[in-house]
């Protein structure tokens, strides 16, 4: 069956489709039905089933006689390490850590925050938590202590598992001091912490609270997998919304297992045993779904890569990894390829390696620009597949399902909706628009298995953020259009979220930080176009009347403040002081117009603008820092 038939079959009977997909999972109590709509418009899947995530990702492969297969390859050019973990070994490691956690009182439903660099122990920690039916919340290492504290207070973890440090090219990231500062700042305190000491920078442990990873597990009993209900949360992953308070996306256990397992063959076209590599970080949804869970659930070999596409040591690293480990599918963000292209535009490094194992490159996380796609296609000689999804969805809304049928690629489009997704383009009043017309991208409820049923302890925010605007639909927050052939085009966010190097960031969150600077009266942050990172945040600062401090000093302090409060990942390095911000007569800051000016794009002065002269002031200020080329 081709894509159209499979999509039509899903649409005709979603219940049959998902019950069939559920056969790929080992159940303790199989589901009697797929969808539970008893609480619509909040939907759940496989609610009456009992299952364990870790069993499906680890134990079942051992039981099936595949324990000798490599589960994880750790490839770390920044520490010059390559190591391999079989499924047998992974089961031992995970069961032992789970046993030690259980002995310290971690049980089903407890939260455990994980703050770790890209080491295989991060996956061991995630799986050990899920083995106990507990709920993990992984926090990306590029976030500052304050961001970690906010997440600790929201998730209220019983324990935190961390690495002593992370390694970025040229510097060591001091995770443990950041963790200490975050716990100090948070109102909620964990019962205990487990610290994986990295030899590059072992940390000082706080007696009574902190435990060394190895000592902690010494002599621990091996824990069994704990059954949970299909709708119980597997994890919480915080993501940026419009404010500084991140949204706690809840991932339901059974839907997550069923959907991810389905995607591995149908979208990525890999079979158990194949090597699958998502070059991302466990702190992001791509890392959750496609470094940890999906490849392991499906019995693949996954790669934990601790390095960058360039500089570790050169722009040939990706090809070296593909060659050395015989990678069949690579998944990364377009920004990684832009980085490689910038350093090796002719692609000369590829010639040094044998990358014939590679069957496809998948890109997601941000818009894939046509130049990058064409360059990658020519260089690698394999299909380059853009696919579109979000932290909220956990897997692709739209893709080119290579395992079903390779549809014609239309550059600039992540192709077509996957089964489970009835995607519609809506006008402001919620009516579907014609093909080719721009609108808000929404998905008809219910969303498929694996997607968020709610936000952690914030059902009202969930309804308000995603359901209320277009009743009967999930609002994606992206705008775009669908062509006559049903191909989607993702054009922009409809909210204050920007995408920097594939990392999702809130301009509203940055504005909250800037507004806390004592000399800043008012501010706005926009995302300007950047050749490498896609977008970069740029701040406009209006200082208090009578401020004597030089503008440059205020800008430098603001840059440091965002780095300290949000973290280096915000990449906030650009700001200008202006007298006034352009606003509508009702006081709304005209951020979209400022973006157009900064990018040198054409625009119409909004009819509602209060004082058009301010736009010239903005243009002059932007030119002063190298932006706003003439349109
Ligand atoms: N821990 C601590 N700091 C981190 C970090 C981590 N895990 N990850 C990134 N940072 C820091 C970086 O060191 C950098 O700090 P700096 O301002 O001191 O240089 C800052 O956060 C910004 O990071 P990033 O935006 O990633 O820029 P970069 O220059 O380090 O790397 C790319 C640029 C394109 C090479 C890199 O972003 C990349 O490989 N991206 C593609 C893959 C990916 O991660 N996608 C995400 C989701 S799919
Ligand atoms: P995140 O939740 O971090 O995965 O970010 C999700 C957002 O990234 C989406 O809502 C889009 O705005 C953007 N995004 C992800 N994938 C794509 C893609 N393939 N094309 C365009 N934008 C994308």
TrEMBL record:
Organism of this sequence: Kangsaoukella pontilimi
Listed InterPro entries: ACAS_N, AMP-bd_C, AMP-bd_C_sf, AMP-binding, AMP-binding_CS, AMP-dep_synth/lig_dom, ANL_N_sf
Ranges of residues in domain AMP-binding enzyme C-terminal: 510-588
Pfam families (UniProt xref): ACAS_N, AMP-binding, AMP-binding_C
Matches recorded under PROSITE patterns: AMP_BINDING (PS00455)
CDD domains with a match to the protein in the record: PrpE (cd05967)
Protein name as it appears in the record: AMP-binding protein
Family to which the UniProt record says this protein belongs: Belongs to the ATP-dependent AMP-binding enzyme family.
Domain Acetyl-coenzyme A synthetase N-terminal: 3-57
Molecular function terms, GO-annotated: propionate-CoA ligase activity
Entries under SUPFAM superfamilies matching the protein: Acetyl-CoA synthetase-like
Domain (AMP-dependent synthetase/ligase): residue spans on this chain: 64-443
GO CC terms in record: intracellular organelle lumen
């Amino acid at each position: 069956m081709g894509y159209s038939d499979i999509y039509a079959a899903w649409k005709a009977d979603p219940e049959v489709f998902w019950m069939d997909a559920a056969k790929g999972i080992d159940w303790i109590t199989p589901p009697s039905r797929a969808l539970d709509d008893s609480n619509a418009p909040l939907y759940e899947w496989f609610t009456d089933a009992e299952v364990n995530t870790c069993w499906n990702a680890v134990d079942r492969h051992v039981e099936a006689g595949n324990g000798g297969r490599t589960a994880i390859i750790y490839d770390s050019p920044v520490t010059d390490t390559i190591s391999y973990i079989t499924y047998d070994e992974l089961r031992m490691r995970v069961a032992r850590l789970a046993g030690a956690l259980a002995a310290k009182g971690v049980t089903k439903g407890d939260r455990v925050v994980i703050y770790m660099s890209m080491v295989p122990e991060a996956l061991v920690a995630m799986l050990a938590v899920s083995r106990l039916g507990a709920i993990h919340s992984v926090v990306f290492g590029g976030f500052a202590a304050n961001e970690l504290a906010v997440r600790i207070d929201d998730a209220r973890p019983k324990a935190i598992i961390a690495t002593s440090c992370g390694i970025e090219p040229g510097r060591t990231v001091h995770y443990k001091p950041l963790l200490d500062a975050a716990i100090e700042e948070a109102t909620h305190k964990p019962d205990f912490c487990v610290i994986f000491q990295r030899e590059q920078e072992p940390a000082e442990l706080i007696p009574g609270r902190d435990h060394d990873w190895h000592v902690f597990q010494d002599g621990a009993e091996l824990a069994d997998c704990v059954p949970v209900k299909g709708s119980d949360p597997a994890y919480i992953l915080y993501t940026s919304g419009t404010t500084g308070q991140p949204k706690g996306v809840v991932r339901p256990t059974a839907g997550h297992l069923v959907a991810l397992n389905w995607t591995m063959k149908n979208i990525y076209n890999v079979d158990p045993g194949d090597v699958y590599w998502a070059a991302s970080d466990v702190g992001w949804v791509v890392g959750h779904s496609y470094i940890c869970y999906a490849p392991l659930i499906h019995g693949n070999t996954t790669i934990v890569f601790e390095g960058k596409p360039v500089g570790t040591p050169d722009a040939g690293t990706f090809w070296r990894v593909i060659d050395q480990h015989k990678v069949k599918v690579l998944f990364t963000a377009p920004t990684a390829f832009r980085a490689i292209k910038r350093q090796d535009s002719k692609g000369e490094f590829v010639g040094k390696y044998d990358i014939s194992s590679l069957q496809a490159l998948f890109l997601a996380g941000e818009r894939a620009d046509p130049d990058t796609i064409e360059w990658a296609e020519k260089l690698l000689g394999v299909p380059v597949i853009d696919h579109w999804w979000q932290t909220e969805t956990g897997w692709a809304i739209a893709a080119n399902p290579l395992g079903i049928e390779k549809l014609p690629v239309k550059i600039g489009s992540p192709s077509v909706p996957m089964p489970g997704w009835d995607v519609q383009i809506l006008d402001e009043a919620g009516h579907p628009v014609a093909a080719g017309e721009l609108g808000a991208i929404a998905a008809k409820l219910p969303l498929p298995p694996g997607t968020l049923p709610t936000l952690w302890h914030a059902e009202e925010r969930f309804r308000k953020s995603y359901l209320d605007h277009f009743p009967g639909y999930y609002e994606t927050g992206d705008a775009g259009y669908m062509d006559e052939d049903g191909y989607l085009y993702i054009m922009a966010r409809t909210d204050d979220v920007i995408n920097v190097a594939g990392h999702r960031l809130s301009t509203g969150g940055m504005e909250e930080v800037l507004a806390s600077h004592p000399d800043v009266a008012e501010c706005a942050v926009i995302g300007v176009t950047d050749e490498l990172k896609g977008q970069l945040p740029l701040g406009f600062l209006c200082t208090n009347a009578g401020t004597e401090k030089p503008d440059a000093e205020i800008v430098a302090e603001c840059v440091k403040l965002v780095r300290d409060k949000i973290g280096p990942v915000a990449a906030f390095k650009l700001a200008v002081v202006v007298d006034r911000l352009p606003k509508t007569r009702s006081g709304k800051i005209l951020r979209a117009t400022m973006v157009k000016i900064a990018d040198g794009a054409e625009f119409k002065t909004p009819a509602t603008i209060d004082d058009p002269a301010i736009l010239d002031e903005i243009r002059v200020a932007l030119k002063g820092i190298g932006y706003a080329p003439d349109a």
